[in-house]
């Protein structure tokens, strides 16, 4: 879901088959959008890895296509990676994969509602001229 102050419609939406071979398309799209927001190269690579990790977590339980929605706002990029799921699904927020995800992204949330798993990442670009 978008933040309360963001429009319900994403700036970019990508729908992909729930297959690992398509994660590179998602990572490349993410990098291109982050570059438009003047993210540093380090920030872009961290975001690419975070989105790849989120996609891997979603693909493990996918029961349909994978969707990614992007909201671009100033120097902040919000990404929601989602898929329909069947049955009870939980994300281990103490596991290694989640720890990697939260280290790479400024903010991360997972939710399962009405048979849909969503992982939300919010990343703000490092101001140019500073190091992360």
Q: List the domain count as a whole number.
A: 1
Q: What is the helical fraction, as a range of percent?
A: 25-40%
* CATH class descriptor: Alpha Beta
Which CATH architecture? 2-Layer Sandwich
Across the major sheet, the strand order is: 1-2-3-5-4
* Shape assignment: globular
From the structure provided, what is the oligomeric state, counting identical versus distinct chains? single chain
Ranges with pLDDT <50 over ≥5 residues?
A: none
CATH H-level homologous superfamily name: Histidine kinase-like ATPase, C-terminal domain
What do we call the CATH topology?
Heat Shock Protein 90
Q: Radius of gyration from the CA trace?
A: 14 Å
Q: Would you tell me the overall average pLDDT? A: 90
Instruction: Assess the beta-strand content as a share of residues.
Output: 25-35%
Helix-and-strand structural type: alpha+beta
The helix tally amounts to: 3
Sheet bearing the most strands, described? 5 strands, antiparallel
Distance between the termini: 28 Å
- Number of E strands: 5
Polypeptide structure, described:
The chain has 132 residues and is an alpha+beta fold. It has one domain (12-124): Histidine kinase-like ATPase, C-terminal domain (Heat Shock Protein 90, 2-Layer Sandwich). It is 32% helix and 29% strand. The chain has 3 helices and 5 strands. The chain has helices at 23-36, 41-59, 96-104, and strands at residues 12-16, 66-73, 76-84, 107-113, 116-124. It has a 5-stranded antiparallel sheet, with helices on one face. Strand 2 and strand 3 form a beta hairpin. The longest helix has 19 residues, at 41-59. The chain is globular, with a radius of gyration of 14 Å. 28% of the residues are buried.
